[in-house]
Design goal:
By secondary structure, the chain is mainly α. The protein is built from 25 helices and no strands. The chain is globular and about 70 Å long.
Length: about 500
């Protein structure tokens, strides 16, 4: 079964079960179990050893993964502190005086998501904690909030030269290639990320909804922002910290951004003489985010105690409350990482590499679209954009060396990056999708099912743009054609929705 289609069966099983049963924990574990059985040739002891020793324990022993879990815990504690101090409620009251409409609340969420481009995990949880009170007041569904968060997380990070994603792509570039220059040259061809931003703003301004999201937004306008069973935090926010002010939210968020940037460049050797760009390119996002979030947490505690908005005992109670709030996200992440280790052990990367290399010579003009679709499938099945970069970028650059001046190399690298983000966007086992659900405090399967039609629409248009790019080799022509298709689809949906509303 090694390096065959069977290597992709475990994640396919997990994803199918999650979408059918609407229950993510058991679905992920069954996918892991299938992977363990395949790897051990259906040996009972071998399956258990592979799942827990080679899989779960190995993933929890990985320093990068542990760093991400610590970052989640620190962020959960900070969110709990901001809620209890009344900072979130105060910001919600301030925003309600300045943001008057549902469209305004959604555009403000998009704007904040675009501003926080340092890291997708950081983006998801920060934007969620800041904008939840605002979107709740304007009756925007939690599913729509989760989509806006997710659509401004990875798509923004993948076109921001100063981000943990730029550092990841740079790290996957072959030796002797300037990874950051490669990343910057690929930005204009990153159609999925660019089209997602345009599509999201167009959907918001024209008030277009389709697919399952339409039901969630209709319910939200009638007062039910959840639609799914939930434990709400709305009442807690209303009764929290009577002395809270907007500064009690702005200061922790600002300190978090500044400290995380400093933490990332510190991990990249900035204070040892490296330039800012090189430090970011060589940074360890896990270490930088942990150091930055911990320092920001300490600053928040000190400020709240000095201002007298919270007692020391209340601050300490937020430690456990913040941890508890992140337990569902941590459980899903651990299971998703374990599932990825199952696919790795079955040779999924080798299987996909063989497909790409086999088609490189015969289908050159179609290759950008083919690589985009392969990256979508691989990222969707494994739940990781970065893993997809690591597999496909070296293959693309081996097939089309940059030294030859072949523009197809840059287009193919962009197609790989865009497809990885698209698959990550759609996948219920993606860490970014999980973080978006956590940030919006939205049911995870509800977020996946409502977001998928939007992501697939954008993916189809991006595929057309890559087909044009493969033949034209011109960034302007393919970008313009893609945008025309996108806007045409949006206006058709807009008029169709208006006609449906008139009939009702």
């Amino acid at each position: 079964m090694y390096a065959t289609f069977w290597a992709l069966v475990p994640p396919i099983v997990a994803i199918a079960l999650a979408l059918i049963t609407k229950e993510v924990y058991s679905s992920l574990f069954i996918g892991i179990l299938v992977g363990g059985l395949f790897y051990s040739n259906f040996s009972f002891v071998g399956t258990l050893e592979h799942i827990f020793t080679d899989g779960m324990i190995a993933q929890l022993s990985d320093s990068y993964n542990v760093g991400i879990l610590l970052f989640l815990v620190f962020l959960g504690i900070m969110v709990s502190l901001m809620n209890k101090a009344g900072g979130s409620a105060a910001f919600g009251e301030w925003a309600s005086k300045h943001i008057k409409t549902r469209v305004g609340a959604q555009l403000a969420t998009i704007a904040l998501g675009c501003l926080i481009f340092i890291d997708d995990y950081f983006n998801c949880l920060t934007v969620g904690s800041v904008m939840r009170p605002v979107t709740d007041r304007h009756q925007v569904s939690r599913a729509k909030l989760a989509y806006l968060i997710d659509a401004t997380a990875a798509p923004v990070c993948i076109i921001a030269p100063i981000s943990s994603w730029a550092a990841a792509v740079s790290a996957f570039a072959p030796e002797g290639t300037n990874g950051l220059v490669l990343f910057i040259r690929a930005i204009p061809y990153n159609y999925y990320a660019l089209f997602t931003l345009v599509m999201m703003i167009t959907l918001t301004v024209l008030k277009i909804e389709y697919g399952p999201m339409l039901k969630y937004e209709k319910n939200a306008k009638n007062g039910d922002i959840f639609t799914f069973p939930h434990t709400t935090d709305v009442e807690e926010t209303k009764t929290a910290g009577a002395n809270g002010k907007v500064v009690d939210l702005v200061l922790p968020i600002a300190s978090l951004i500044i400290c995380c940037v400093i933490g990332m460049i510190y991990s990249g050797g900035f204070f040892e003489g490296a330039s800012f760009i090189d430090a970011f390119a060589n940074s360890d996002a896990s270490v930088g985010l942990v150091l930055g979030s911990f320092v920001a947490l300490v600053i928040t505690l000190v400020v709240y105690l000095l201002r007298g908005v919270m007692k020391f005992k209340d601050c300490m109670s937020c430690l456990t409350e913040g941890f508890k709030a992140m337990v569902p996200a941590i459980m899903i992440l651990v299971l998703a990482w374990t599932l990825k280790s199952m696919t790795d052990s079955l040779g999924a990367a080798d299987y996909v590499a063989g497909i790409v290399q086999g088609s490189a010579e015969n289908l050159q003009n179609f290759l950008p679209a083919i690589i985009f679709l392969i990256a979508v499938g691989l990222s969707f099945a494994t739940g990781t954009s970065w893993g997809t970069f690591g597999i496909l970028i070296p293959i693309c650059l081996n097939a089309f060396p940059l030294e030859s001046g072949n523009s197809l190399a840059i287009i193919c690298v962009s197609a790989c990056m865009a497809g990885a983000v698209c698959g990550d966007h759609c996948s219920p086992i993606s860490d970014t999708t999980i973080m978006s659900s956590a940030g919006a405090q939205c049911d995870h399967i509800a977020h996946v099912s409502t977001q998928m039609p939007y992501a697939l629409s954008c993916a189809a248009i991006s595929c057309v743009a890559y087909l044009v790019a493969g033949f034209a080799r011109n960034v302007v022509a393919s970008l313009v054609i893609g945008l025309i298709f996108l806007l045409l689809c949006m206006f058709i949906l807009h008029f169709a929705q208006r006609n449906a509303e008139r009939v009702e």
